[in-house]
Structures are given as structure tokens and as C-alpha cells.
Amino acid sequence: MNRRDFTAAMAAALALSALPLWAQTAPDTSSATETATATLPDVPDMTLGNPDAKVVLTEYASYTCPHCAHFHDEVFVNLKRDYIDTGKIKFVFREVFFDRYGLWAAMLARCGGDMRYFGIQDILFSTQRDWAASDDPATVIDNLRRIGRTAGMDDAEMDKCLNDGAMAQAMVNKYQADTKADNIDSTPSLILDGKKYSNMNYADLKALLDAELAK
Length: 215
Prior knowledge:
Layout (H helix, E strand, L loop, with lengths): L2 H16 L13 H6 L8 E4 L6 E6 L4 H19 L5 E6 L4 H12 L2 H13 L1 H4 L5 H14 L4 H8 L2 H17 L7 E4 L2 E4 L3 H12 L2
Parallel strand pairs: 2-3
Antiparallel strand pairs: 1-3, 2-4, 4-5
């Protein structure tokens, strides 16, 4: 997503988050009052690789961003093989929300827990054109539930996660704080050694990582 589209989407997301949460996120609105007064939970970064690595690469991406799906399929697969799985770097993934579909997808991925998060992410990005294509929110929820079942979750488990208004609000708050702090204006965006980079091919990213590792 480019800067102009990102700015428009950010405005839409801010407007979305200003509404009562259950008016636009989960299919069950019965817990609105409790959600409004609940203490919001912590929302940890999702990470892979060596937690003690001197080089940390952070990616900002949305599950409904086509450029992010392309990056995942064409760049991340190589990044994971060469730098993450080998323990050379620590990788941090931060979710960006432009719409309720992207928020729901992230809630589902987190529902799977740390061990399943990135496996669910693979499915979300590789099948993005399928699960996110409908204009009907109920259809999208059904599509996401099918992905969850593929990952080994049952309907009761997924319903609990998708109806967790406090977590949804906490995730939106984290997204807004993180993107503001790192001045994110497009997706996917990368942060390496405190410097921001926009979408790039694997060869260019590899050159940056190798230079950083050589320091």
C-alpha cells in the first residue's frame, strides 16, 4: 500500500476505532458494556528467530494489503530460510489495521497462540484473495473460521477470540501507537537498525542485512 492510500486507510481505521468496538469488529455484540470498562490486555509483538540477535528486523504489514501478501510470498520465505531460521536475526512482525477484515484476521492468528501464529499467517497471506474478497462481513468471518479449523482450532475457541472486545481494542491501540512512533506511512514497511525502509525485493533486503551483520 502506497503513502496516499495508507493515509486514507489510516483515517478510515481511526474513524473505525472511534466507534463502539462491537459496532464494527466482532459478530457478537453482547459484551459491549463490559468491554468498555475492562482493563485492556497486553499485546506482545510476534517474533521469530534468535531473541538475542544483534540485528533486529521489524515488518509492519496488514493482512488485507496485496503488497504485503506479495512480500510474504516472494521475500519473507527467503528471509526466513536464510536469516531467521539460521538464528542470524530476530524478526518482529507488527500488525497494521486498515479495516475490520484485517483486524479479524490478526485476532484469529493470535488465537492460535505463539506456536501457530506464523503458520496461520502463511495461510492468511497465501489465500488473501479468497478469504478477504467478499463485501459481506459474515462471509469473511466464515472464511476465517475455515482457516482456523485448518490450523486446529474449534468454533468455540475461535468465537471466544473473535468476540474478545478488550483484545481487539488493545490491538488497535498498539497499532496506532507503533505506527506513529515509527512514522509508518506505507505497507509493508521495514525497520532495520532504527531506519525505515519501504517494500523491496529480496536481493536488496539481503544486501542491507549482510551489511548490518558485518558491523
